[in-house]
Amino acid sequence: MRFGHFSDAAREYVITTPRTPYPWINYLGTEEYFGLISHTGGGYSFYRDARMRRLTRYRYNNVPTDVGGRYFYVNDDGDVWTPSWAPVQAELDHFEARHGLSYTVITGERNGLRIETLYLVPLGATAEIHRVRLTNTGATAKGVKLFSILEFNLWNALDDQTNYQRNLSLAEVEVDGSTIYHKTEYRERRNHYAVHAVNAPISGYDTDRETFFGLYGGWNAPDAVVAGHCHNSIASGWSPIGAHQIDVALAPGEVRDLVFVLGYVENEPGAKWESPGVVNKAPARALLQRFSTSEQVDAAMVELRSYWDDLLSTFTVDSGDPRVDRMVNVWNPYQCMVTFNMSRSASYFETGIGRGMGFRDSNQDLLGFVHLVPDRARERILDIAATQLPDGSAYHQYQLLTKRGNHDIGSGFNDDPLWLIEGVAAYVSETGDLAILDEDVPFDNDPEDTGTLFEHLRRSFHHVLHNRGPHGLPLIGRADWNDCLNLNCFSETPGESFQTTENLAGGSAESVFIAGLFVHCAPDYATLAEAVRAPEEADRARRAAAAMSAVVLDHGWDGDWFVRAYDYFGNKIGSSECDEGRIYIEPQGFCVMAGIGVESGEAVRALDSVGKILDTDHGIMLLQPPYTSYHLELGEISTYPPGYKENGSIFCHSNPWVMIAETMVGRGDRAFAYWKKIAPTFREEISEVHRLEPYVYAQMIAGKDAPRHGEAKNSWLTGTAAWNFVAITQHILGVKPEMEGLRVQPCLPAEMTKVEVTRRCRGAQYRITVANRGESGSPRLAVDGQPINGTVVPYGPAGSIVEITVDC
Ligand code: GLC
Ligand code: GLC
Q1: Which atom of ligand 2 is nearest to the CA of 484?
Q2: Percentages helix, strand, coil for the chain, rounded to the nearest 5?
Q3: Catalytic residue among 206, 415, 483, 524
């Protein structure tokens, strides 16, 4: 069942009922100011850091699930309703929410009044616009009261929800005409405040929450709205809000636009005040001036659209199947950009308080956006690398504002260092910018202890080699990619963190996954070593990879699939010797991606086992059978009920590894079939089962052992976005930038007979036409009409157009 449809021309998902199976959200903002917005107007906003600069309040895990946002109420002669349906939930004669690229439009109509609100963050602005368009669709004149309302957050989102003895005595505001200034803590150390304004005279306002809602009133029926007027309250401590009242008269057919602005404003420390106690409003006025007419908002929309036109023209496909095209051309890169901006901080499953930027997550996210914003990817790489520790290990997370490693989590996740190699290799392949390898980058942000970026990669690579266990496999440390395989943790204390606790540290637990990742990274690392004229290091790396492959085949091969790990006591995990957790997805994907066993047959065998044991109608499960009880020696993985999260869900992040692996053994049909099972545009038809947004990937879908098999959770902020983009574009469609040229090596399913791809790379434009005749063997390429050997097309000069035809 569907709850809306794609509008491909507009690049929107059009939701046609407010009663979706879960709040379906979108993101506003592309630079520094961001907002989350659900299809019924829920959500919140922040400047740069969702924890430290939160502008508006949101209460997670609420009842009902999504209350709180930037809302508009109507009092139409005593009839109170909200055009976003929530929070009043009065029935609407018409409802539509259109989620587009960095904007959302919500329309509600009732009793002859249509209200369409456009929400966006203009480029170059630290503010969001809510343009409210009221249309009298009836035959009689209308006079209504319109109310805006949002709750100001007291900046630090964690403190805001925990420190009431202080916070309820803190709030301060100013009101000047139609502008409400939220200036809590501005008197002391902050030099920023928020504004909530409208481009029209108002007939009232409230800034004190209790006055607006009533102490016992709620979002469904605020006192002021029901009474039909605000009280011009000035918040003093307690909870500050920004509410406007505007009386609107509309003749039949008349349309009126109101432009509301919620903005973040900074003053220089020396220029904070206009007069004692009165904030300097000059920058706020300048901001509001830029968005004081509906035409200015239209112009901002045009700019925003062209920003996305430009980004999305980097890679396009025409595959003949709109579900493929809209995923590859629009929604997947869009989600990748959101993961670039948010990392794992703010979604409807991540509170914006907890997690910093993950070392491994950020490097993997990069794979999905490096072609869109290479300059920003470069900056990101240097930031990440600066949190690496001198021994080659890495802080597992760092904070965005300070760019410092997070001491609470620390290091010791032994896969982390290798992801830096993946990220840098992707960046250099995309851009050819070898100079980045010579950049001087600190270790642990210490300006006294620096090395070139290549030196960072060298320490990453050798960190694995220096930390091997009894079988010669890499030690796992606190966890590898699977955060929940905590083999040195042995936690018996409720509440203790599985990620940071090592009750039996210094153990000998080893990871076959890290071995696969190591072998996978080695060729790129060797090429980068050659680029910095370190040929001996390149040789060393190739030899080390060959040796590691042999170790994997000796100690990491179980007969029908790759073993997952060895535990603290040297017992196998992910082996037919085990009762539960006999086979895991990760080593099957990564060892095959690394080429281990491709020649000698183990690879196909492992992939066949995946197909037989882990595959379901909803994607590939992480492991089988799931753990049914808590295993002290395994850690968090066995804490989840069977079928959830790492304990046997379809953890979508790791599915594309198997897709890529399938293309490595030439099985395009299988690769594509796996992709279709988890790709949101293909799951749209079963939205009542999947429940989350049909336009972005979710981190996990419940596995077959869970009662709610097929139900997704944790949409938006997941490495799933980047890896699926890599799988579909670089391996199935087969267009992959490499150091020496653009590899064009499609591995297509039979159902895709003709494919056209355009790719911009290093300033040239590639137009690729693929005829898929289902022939096995290597594809045959012609470049500008001339047949070439192999599948790597040398990069054309900037500005050139290169025509490539492929027969396969
Ligand atoms: C989460 C984490 C990621 C980890 C994955 C598997 O998605 O963000 O770092 O690899 O879970 O445990
Ligand atoms: C939990 C999750 C895992 C995530 C980790 C991050 O362990 O199960 O997916 O990576 O938290 O801290």
Answers
A1: 7
A2: 30, 30, 40
A3: 483
For the chain, state the CA radius of gyration.
Answer: 28
Question: Under a CB-based contact definition with an 8 Å cutoff, are residues 647 and 624 in contact?
Answer: no
- What phi and psi, each to the nearest 5 degrees, are found at residue 261? -130, 130
Q: Is 483 a catalytic residue?
A: yes
Q: Whose CA is nearest to atom 7 of ligand 1?
A: 718
* Low pLDDT (below 70) residues in the chain: 506, 776-777
Q: Which of 403, 376, 528 lies closest to 457 in space, CA to CA? A: 528
- Taking the CA of residue 355 as reference, the ligand 2 atom at the shortest distance is 12
In the chain, DSSP finds a helix count (H) and a strand count (E) of 21, 44
Instruction: Return the ligand 2 atom nearest residue 483 CA.
Output: 10
- Residues 619, 624: Cα–Cα separation, whole Å: 13
Residue 27: Cβ within 10 Å count: 26
Which residues does 422 contact at the CB level (< 8 Å), separation at least 6? 363, 364, 367, 520, 521, 524
Reduced to 3 states (helix: H, G, I; strand: E, B; else coil), residue 504 is coil
Residue pair 192/271 in contact (Cβ under 8 Å)? The answer is: no
Apex CA 529: angle with CA 527 and CA 532, to 5°? 115
Alpha helices by DSSP H, 252-342:
282-290, 294-312, 322-326, 332-342
Taking the centre of ligand 2 as the mean of its atom positions, its distance from the CA of residue 495, in whole angstroms, is 14
User: Model's pTM, two decimal places?
Assistant: 0.97
Question: What is the Cα–Cα distance from 525 to 532, expressed in whole angstroms?
Answer: 11
**pLDDT recorded at residue 776:** 64
Separation of alpha carbons 542 and 76, rounded Å = 74
Which residue, 183, 160, 146, is CA-closest to 71?
Answer: 146
CB of 228 closer than 8 Å to CB of 247: no
Please identify which residue in the block is written with the tokens 């409230």: 206
Assess contact for 241 and 109: CB atoms under 8 A: no
Q: Tell how strand 54-56 and strand 142-155 pair up.
A: antiparallel
Element (H, E) at 594: none
Task: For residue 234, give the amino acid letter.
Answer: I
Nearest to 84 by CA among 62, 63, 60, 68: 68
Tokens of 495: 């509440």
- Tell me if 416 CB under 6 Å of ligand 1: no
- Is residue 482 within 8 Å of 646, Cβ to Cβ? yes
Picking from 342, 335, 368, 337, the residue whose alpha carbon sits closest to that of residue 695 is 335
Of 421, 430, 439, 441, residue with least CA distance to 528: 421
Our CA dihedral for 707, 710, 716, 722, rounded to 10 degrees, sits at: 130
The 3-state DSSP class for residue 779 equals coil
Can you say how many angstroms the Cα of residue 576 is from the centroid of all Cα atoms in its chain? 36
**591, 511 in Cβ contact below 8 A?**
no
- pLDDT value at residue 401: 76
Peptide bond into 625 cis (omega under 30): yes
CA dihedral sign of residues 354, 356, 357, 358: negative
473, 563 in Cβ contact below 8 A? no
Cα dihedral 451, 457, 460, 464 sign: negative
Q: Whose CA is nearest to atom 6 of ligand 1?
A: 482
Amino acid letter, 179: T
Strand-pair partners of 700: 651, 713
Ligand 2 binding residues, C-beta < 6 A: 483-484, 499, 636, 645-646
Instruction: Give which of 350, 354, 478 is closest to 44, Cα–Cα.
Output: 350
The one-letter amino acid at 90: A
764-771 and 801-807 as β-strands: parallel, antiparallel, unpaired? parallel
- Tell me the sheet residues that pair with 796: none
Q: Determine the Cα–Cα distance for residues 704 and 631; give it in Å rounded to an integer.
A: 21
| Cα 678 to Cα 675: distance, rounded to the nearest angstrom | 6
Which residue lies with its CA nearest to atom 11 of ligand 1?
483
